[in-house]
Amino acid sequence: LLSLLLLLPCFSFSIETDTIKPNNPLRDGDVLVSGRQTFSLGFFSPKNSIRRYLGIWYHNVSEQTVIWVANRDAPLNDTSGLLSLDSRDNFGIYAANGTSLVWSAKLPAGNFAARLLNSGNWEMSILDTCKKLNP
């Protein structure tokens, strides 16, 4: 029983809607929402444009107000984009369903997750602690 209680913090009993983890990319059409539902992150097209961008905007406002754009200089031409933490330690935007890297930020080696905070910022955290407890 004590062993089970020690492992409980490694399990999540709720669905996280503010986090991207390895092997679970954010696809165009999906949206992350910060814990207090202040900000959203996802792919969008500005008015009168077919180009797609990854951005952060205020959640639940009548007119989408984008506050940050990742791929401003490299917009996507269609809805095949995804945001992923990949096996090469890249946090990146991919086009063509994951075959073409468009924008990336290199991470140190490790098993990371990216979380959208209530401030509108990103938080990167290492996921390895539970992995070591569960070989």
From TrEMBL:
Protein name, per record: Bulb-type lectin domain-containing protein
Biological source species: Linum tenue
Domain Bulb-type lectin: 17-135
Domain of life: Eukaryota
Pfam family, one: B_lectin
Keyword annotations of the record: Disulfide bond, Glycoprotein, Signal
Signal peptide start and end residues: 1-17
